[in-house]
Amino acid sequence: MYKILANTLFLGKNVVFVPECHSTNTLLLELSQKTNQPEGTIVITHSQTRGRGQRGNGWEAEPGMNLTFSLLLKPHFMLAKQQFDLTMAVSLGVFDFLSARIPGRVKIKWPNDLLIGEKKITGILIENGLVGEQIQQSIVGIGLNINQTVFSIATATSLKMETGLDFANNDELNALLQKLETRYLQLRAGKRAELQAAYLKNLYRIGETHSFVANGQKMQGRIDGVDESGRLKVHTDGIDRFFGLKEISFAYE
Ligand code: BTN
């Protein structure tokens, strides 16, 4: 069970805990379609049997060891074409939370992975429901590795692996919700430029030349930023090129 403290304005005021489910994103979507759930509603579980990740990947987490939850936002103040702003705000909320525990070592890997060094500690899956040009609702799924120390992939890490400490998942959830709400309110207040500056400042490999696979071809390029629609701006062969999520991946040298 999760007990949410009264330290946020609306995030986590309505919590739906299920011991097990396929995917909290899927469950929250179903719930929100059946009944009107208030903004800030959270669905959280100890165990996902079909956790979903970006690019059609899965998300694995040892039951009860990590945070796996989804939250419902209703960013009616945003247009569909601005949806990357929400990606930046959510990434920064998680970044702020992690930086308070692992100072100076957290990076945001475009578009919304959180890394410690080269290892991934948090994945985010945002699924937006659009009506015309508006965002009707957003389901923000977060998998944050807390106490798990053995992973099937060598590129994963957790708070415990990085600090040697044990964490209480409930306390960490409360702290994370506060950070997420602060960044969401910053977005709602129209402070997009501040969010973008913070996002770029903490972006993994910004300004560095590395290998990428773009549209099936390996290339060298330098990340120079992100455009308004969230495409990655890569300087290569003397020109700036822009890539969407399915068009580019980081290659490891
Ligand atoms: C990724 O990095 O690929 C995104 C992973 C997102 C995982 C979280 S766990 C809670 C929520 N429910 C899901 O099925 N996925 C997200």
CATH class of the largest domain: Alpha Beta
Question: How is the biggest beta sheet arranged?
Answer: 7 strands, mixed
Bound molecules: biotin
Q: What Rg do the Cα atoms give?
A: 18 Å
The domain tally reads: 2
The proportion of residues forming helix, as a percent range, comes to: 25-40%
What name does the CATH topology of the largest domain carry? Answer: BirA Bifunctional Protein, domain 2
Shape: globular
For the largest sheet, list the strands in their spatial order: 1-2-3-7-6-5-4
The helix-strand sequence is EHEEHEEEEHHHEEEEE
Strand content: 25-35%
DSSP helical segment count: 5
Named at the architecture level, the CATH assignment of the largest domain is: 2-Layer Sandwich
Commentary on this structure:
- By secondary structure, the protein is α+β, with helices and mostly antiparallel strands.
- It has two domains: 15-201, BirA Bifunctional Protein, domain 2 (2-Layer Sandwich), CATH 3.30.930; 209-250, SH3 type barrels (Roll), CATH 2.30.30.
- Helix content is 26%, strand content 32%.
- The strands form two sheets. Strands 1-2-3-7-6-5-4 form a seven-stranded mixed sheet, sandwiched between helices. It has a five-stranded antiparallel sheet with strand order 11-10-9-8-12, with no helix packed on it.
- A hairpin with a 2-residue loop joins strand 6 (119-131) and strand 7.
- Helix 2 crosses helix 4.
- The radius of gyration is 18 Å and the shape is globular.
- The mean pLDDT is 95.
- The structure holds biotin (BTN).
- The site of biotin has 20 residues, from helix 1, strand 3, strand 6 and strand 7.
- Biotin binds next to helix 1, strand 3, strand 6 and strand 7.
